[in-house]
Amino acid sequence: MSEPLQQMEAASKLLELKNIDLSFGGVKAISNISFDVMEGEVRAIIGPNGAGKSSLLNVINGFYHPQQGEIWFDGKQRHAMKPYQIAYQGIARTFQNIALFKGMTVLDNIMTGRFTHMHKNMFWQALWKGPAEKEEIENREFVEHIIDFLEIQAIRKTPVGRLPYGLQKRVELGRALAAQPKMLLLDEPMAGMNVEEKEDMCRFILDVNDTFGTTIVLIEHDMGVVMDIADRVVVLDYGRKIGDGTPDVVRNDQTVIDAYLGVSH
Amino acid sequence: MTLSLKKPTYPAPGLDTFPKLLLHNARMFTDKDAMREKEFGIWQSWTWSQVAEEVERFALGLQANGVKAGDTVLIIGGNRPRTYWTMCAVQSLGAVPVPTYHDSVASEMQFVIEHSDARVIVAEDQEQVDKILDVKALCPSVELIIYDDPRGMKGYDPQEIKIQDFVTVQAQGEAIRKDNPNQFQELVNQGKGEDLSIILYTSGTTGQPKGVVLTYDNTLLTGYYGGLLEGLTENEEILAYLPVAWIGDHIFSYAQSYTMGFCVNCPESTETVASDMREIGPTYYFAPPRVFESLLTNVQIRMEDAAPFKRKMFKYFMQVAKKTGIKLLENKPVGLMDRIKYALGSVLVYGPLKDALGMGRVRLAYTAGEAIGGEIFDFYRSLGINIKQLYGQTESSVFITVQPDGEVFPNTVGTPSPGVELKIADNGEVIYRSPGAFHSYFKNPESTAATKTDEGWVHTGDAGFMTPNGHLRIIDRAKDVGAFNSGKMFAPKYIENKIKFYPHIQEAVTFGDGRDDCMAFINIDLGAVGNWAERNNIAYASYQELAAHPAVNKMVAQSIAEVNESLLDDEMLAHSQVSRFLILHKELDADDGELTRTKKVKRKLINERYKVLIDALYEGKDQCFIETEVAFEDGRVGTISGDISIHDAKTFNPVAQAS
Q1: Which of B40, B152, B154 sits opposite A145 (nearest CB)?
Q2: Within its chain, how far is the Cα of A120 from the centroid?
Q3: Which chain A residues are Cβ-neighbours of B269 within 8 angstroms?
Q4: Under CATH, what is the fold of the domain A1-90+181-265?
Q5: CATH 3.40.50.300 occupies which residues in chain A?
Q6: Taking CA B125 as the corner, what is the angle to CA B124 and CA B126, rounded to the nearest 5 degrees?
């Protein structure tokens, strides 16, 4: 484990959270959390139900803005953003409950992920011939590479609503990848999957990381999966950080074990 | 064109190997597509000259990596252009490619890797490389693995073995080509027709797989003669979707493509074959019977879901097709009114249906491997698809017999292919001598000697006979075939299959070897007969009780009478009508050792265990008492006993029928 860690020291920090506090009215979702994500690593966030994992993901994503604390992404400090700014910052995500356009085909759904890479204005789009067509062809080519990568050629023209759950998750990953993100956030990518689908998804996550060098932050409940694919793990409980380190370190941490086995607070 | 088959006739003088053909095609059909593969949603194509260049670069790269004449190179890959290019590249070095099934598990692969002595393996992707590395310790001869798809291959650096990218090897070859542009041509010139061209491992249902060694004269000539016979041209399109390690794909998608110059299309993935086939519209197509069967079932299911008007239209025009379609296909006289109806049907039903199946342009389709149901066969032929049966095996480079145009019968496999001599041995076994007859089994002289005689006759292991019109009819595996006391042939499985065709009969065992006539044991199908009993208010408590019910016996007797009548159609088998039968008191079961785990009847054991019943059948008794041991699923052993009634079956007199 020492070798990858040394490599990580050399890599730069892609994201850093400093003393984040987030509350909804009287409910404190996240209190005083700090951690960082290195460029090119697979970082997992784990914790029991209600620990604040999804809230934290929404903070990273820019959907929530914390009341206190600093967020540094890609070398710049980040402030409250408008939704379209969020889309352009280079962070893509998938959702715990699949959020695809059910009536559209797989291909069209993934094409929507290319939105941030389409620059031609309404005039050119309406005229179609010329620059807009060229741009569309380029984007389609990129999307076809993703379809090939995720091995979903056979369902290219199938409406998403007709697909089984495991495949829909894969399509959602495809749409996130289409945005060519610097950082990919995966909210429970394996929830509700059978063993085979989980294995496939693990392989795709590792391949994405390996092939495109995309930094990945994921929330996952399946401990086996997390311990297998994550480089480093953050553990949350009741909105606080209770552990941080390599899978081996976290696995043997007494506080973490207590949180998972349930010790009275 | 007439063929002089005494000496080999190559597509052009001196073109006796595939690499030579490749260079020839690159000159002849320079800009014609040789290969296509759908990738990233678009059909990518390579012309013959581009393929020649790809093969040349890879061949020289392999040579730089130490592959030389006489080596074997294992190929593990699906239907991808590079898989086929690798075969040709290996052949151009005088080495022998050994394609293997890419879906086999590591332990099965280990046998082939070990047995073939391969030092170099060309694998498709990470999955295959992982399998090789799994069994690496047991196969010390492997020195180099070349992979095609780089995905996931980053970070593979095992100490004991070299791993290289296909593209890197080609780049090495390119460097050599720059220095010495004639090297590839010189290498190719050294090949000869009698050289070994390929080793194909047969799946081996009994014991370990055997490596069938074939020469260029086997595969190239057989493919070429077969192509000439059917009038294939360079304009055919074929979809390569069956395993490359199977002789059929090797002949159709490689040998015939190279000899005829037509284009081979590789599907995007195994799941997209159906839609890729629609897009390509092949003109030449092969599929095993089960594929035709499942396509037909799909059509029927979808028609059941269609709107009533469409369903009626489909039913009506399929009746029309049944009546006139086959006649039209075979150029037989058809009335004007029927022609008009068929033409209307073509516009409304047959055309769209064939298009949906991807068979809109099929000029020639083959099926082989097992018997195809007459109904299924007729369905496709009535649509105007020229589907024909052929008979062949790996050892014969596919073609032994093919049904000639206009002489297509559902129950025969056709007349001998060009250059094939066919004989029926004394025991009824089909033996042949042909240009395609294999060289030997790799490193297995005993099996070679047992299968191929010194004069070149090859034993097929199948029993059959020639029909009066010169067609071959396959009936059974030769080892199961016996003879009646009269000396006439007894083919048990053939009769049993006919009996088992009835849904209420689960299993049948026939006796007749060394006897005067044929007798049968029957197992009823508890599901089907139970359902029938329920509908007919017949109460029963057990299999035994239901089997003994007079109504059930009557139903089985009726079925056997029908089988007997159908046996009359065959002069050779008319004498083997079932004269008496009984329904067994228990189901034959693998747990009791009566069937194999794959549900095949163990004849010898049944002969011993049920001797009392067999004797009773032949002694003409009406009833017989039997007690047998049965093993229950929890391992306990019990007995079942009871009286079994024996019935005479209605038989038909062949002579009376004929007159």
Answers
A1: B40
A2: 28
A3: 151, 153-154
A4: Rossmann fold (3.40.50)
A5: 1-90+181-265
A6: 150
